[in-house]
Amino acid sequence: MKKPSFFNKISDKDVYNITNAIKADKYWKISENDRRYYYAVILSRGRTPSFKGRFVKVTGFKAVEADDRVAWFCRKYRVGIVDAREKKLICVLTWTAFKKLMHEGDRILKLVLDSKLPPYINEKIAEKLIS
C-alpha cells in the first residue's frame, strides 16, 4: 500500500498515533470541564456542499458541517475542533499544533467560546496562542 506523503514529514510515533486514532474512531475532549467541544481527526476534504457550507468526515462524529473558509483547510490526517451539539467544524489544526494545544484545554476552550480562533492553526499560530 502506498504511504501518504504527509507521513514522510512526521515521526513514526506520530504516524502510529494517527493511524490508530483513525482505526479506533477516536476523538478527544478539549477540556475536562466541557462536553460540547472535541478534537477529531479529519478524514476527508471539505468538497461536498451542504446548506451552510461543506460536509467533512471526521472520526467519532461521521460527517459534520464546516463553513467554506474552514472547509478550505480540511485535509486527511489533520485535526479539527468539532462542536458536538451543532455537528459543526470550528477550526482545523495540523498534527503538531494539536500536540502542542492538547494540554492547553481551558485556554483553547475560552478562545472557542469567545469565537477568537482562526480557521486554521499551524505550529507557529499554536505558539502564539499559548504565549
What does this protein look like?
The structure is a single chain. The protein is α+β, with helices and mostly antiparallel strands. The protein has one domain (5-130). It contains 5 helices and 8 strands. It has helices at 12-23, 68-71, 95-101, 105-113, 123-130, and strands at residues 27-29, 37-41, 48-49, 54-58, 62-66, 79-83, 88-93, 120-121. Strands 1, 2, 3, 4, 5, 6, 7 and 8 form an 8-stranded mixed sheet that branches. α3 packs parallel to α5.
| Residues in β-strands, percent | 25-35%
- Percent range for helical residues? 25-40%
The major pleated sheet works out as: 8 strands, mixed
Overall strand count: 8
How far is the N terminus from the C terminus? 41 Å
Q: Which series of helices and strands comes N to C?
A: HEEEEEHEEHHEH
Whole-number total of structural domains: 1
Class per helix and strand makeup: alpha+beta
Our Rg estimate from Cα atoms comes to 14 Å
Give the overall silhouette: globular
Number of helices: 5
Overall mean pLDDT: 93
Low-confidence segments, given as residue ranges, are: none
